[in-house]
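Problem 12. The chain below contains 285 residues. Write out its predicted structure in token notation.
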Amino acid sequence: MKNTTIRLGACILFACFNFGAYAQDSFEINDETVARLQYSKVFTIEHKKFPEVNREADFIDYPVPVASLLGKYEIQPTHYRIATSDGFRGKFLADELIVSAEELAQATQSTYLILVRLSDNERFVFRASDIENIRREEQIKRTIAWAQAQGFKPYKDGEDYYIKSKKCDIRLDARTLTELKNDSMYIIKLDADQTKIMELVQQTKVHIKILDSYLGTYRLKRQNTPTATLAAWRKATLNAQKLANKIYSLNKKYDGNYSFSLLNKTNTYDVFLDNLNASKGVLGM
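Solution.
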């Protein structure tokens, strides 16, 4: 692994590489895309107006071969379903693009997206999963290229790609990409925080021994535990709690982030928390 200075320079490179430059609503159909979508159904759209009920709606019209759709597109954000039959009292009609959850019983389970061709603003309907899968694959390629530019060596485990930072195994997934888009220094800061946490966890070893000793005394003496011992135990528990609070405040920054794991994780912190919680339980804290 390259040192922090080199990785800092690589993070500047990240700013130039910038995932944000890849617009979230853009999509290009080229020869490679056509090959990926060769078994997909794509439809043109017919827009219909119903003046008698003051309503207008989009319907799928006729299928078109993907090979005829080369070009650049903008992806509309709404996910649609296609009505498979007419709705009650004409609320919707067969082949209409609908969004209401109330209509799911009479609609396709799959969702669809509208893509607008930039050259002529013509609209087409694609299965959402087909577009999202391609975009996910493209994002993985971009992520791997970024990781290599940073000096990391991406590796695959199962269906996911990972890199090893100074302190962590980091999965190159949507959460990691979001963190990197928000802060190009994310990995360096993650390593720094995990280093601080590990240093604090090392300090818990002393508290583990102290609390374990008091717990052992209590198991033997129960209600006969001397008042002075209980007072000293309470003070030790308060000191341990202060350390636990420091660790918690650092860990809280990564609540819900399951996209990394420590390279050299031990159960020391878990033992510390077990002793702390047991002590608090006995002492009524």
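Discussion. The radius of gyration is 29 Å. Students who got a different answer should revisit the alignment rule from Section 12.3.
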